[in-house]
Amino acid sequence: MKSAAVVNYAPKKGSVEIREIDVPEIGAEDVLLEVANVGVCGSDLHQWTADHSWPVNYPVVLGHEFGGHIVRTGANVAGWKEGDRVVSETAAIISADNPMTRRGLYNLDPTRKGFGYGVNGAMTKYVRVPSRILHHVPDDLQFEQACLTEPCCVAYNAVVKNASIEPGDRVVVLGPGTIGILCAAMARLCGAQVAVVGLPQDAQRLEIARQYGCDVIIGDATEWARERDGLGCDGVIDAAGASATLKIAIDIVRPAGWISKVGWGPQPLNFNLDPMVQKNVTLQGSFSHNWPIWERVIALLASGQLDVRPIIGGVWPITEWHEAFEKMHHGEVVKAVLKPV
Predict the structure, then answer these.
(1) How would CATH label the architecture of 2-148+308-339?
(2) 199-241 per-position pLDDT tens digit
(3) Which of 65, 84, 69 is nearest to 123 (CA)?
């Protein structure tokens, strides 16, 4: 049996197409998951436009934000059964012996390979998933929302684990993409006053940030950052896909403040970091997520404390992936969701 899949087949711009692929074979520790919904990530777009900065195992099925039902279990799988509603983490391949894995930080294992670039992802009907990275989805949480657990976990790690927010802090988020808006929502849950900053072409996405109780700024955030006492904001979450925004973050953060950088930008910096040193600013990178973060985020989604519905701009069948990609690429929607056919 074959099913339609969105395949990134070469490193050249635009090298993505629908292909018919076989249902994957599973190993003893795996499950076969029937995908209900899969989110389109900025990294999927970057592989489509060929401006990504990570190695890709071509050809590969895109998609790492997904959930669905288990339809088959491997011989050694315990604790899971056919019909279970699940979402999956992204760490498809890790080394059990790596020192980071032994610390529970398998997201930082240098040998880690994820869905959608290292192994086939979920923009298709069936995907092979190691049972170690599955999480239960409550019955009342729809898959259109549950499939976005992964970007919510990225935001949780950047804001809760890798930043230092106290209620009443003033926090600036640079970049109104999916991760930026979810970081802003997380910062609001932590009790911060939040401003999300974008460019004129981001106006539609900034309006979504406003729905999460954030102030929105087009252009220069300096005035907002210094409004309280003239020294700058308490923290900056850099969720933009460009290196240059780090300079903005350093300029607007207060002395002894912090910057959590979650956005990828392969460009050289080409600016002086001395102001960061002089201001005694903490700069923290933030990458991916691990098991306890997923459990916390699923609880937030299931309780309604974190609502991802405002960022979902529509659901498209897999065969209409190109329209969904284009709408995200041009900022018409924050998040597109695909449904296998």
Answers:
(1) Alpha-Beta Complex (3.90)
(2) 999 999 999 999 999 999 999 999 999 999 999 999 999 999 8
(3) 65
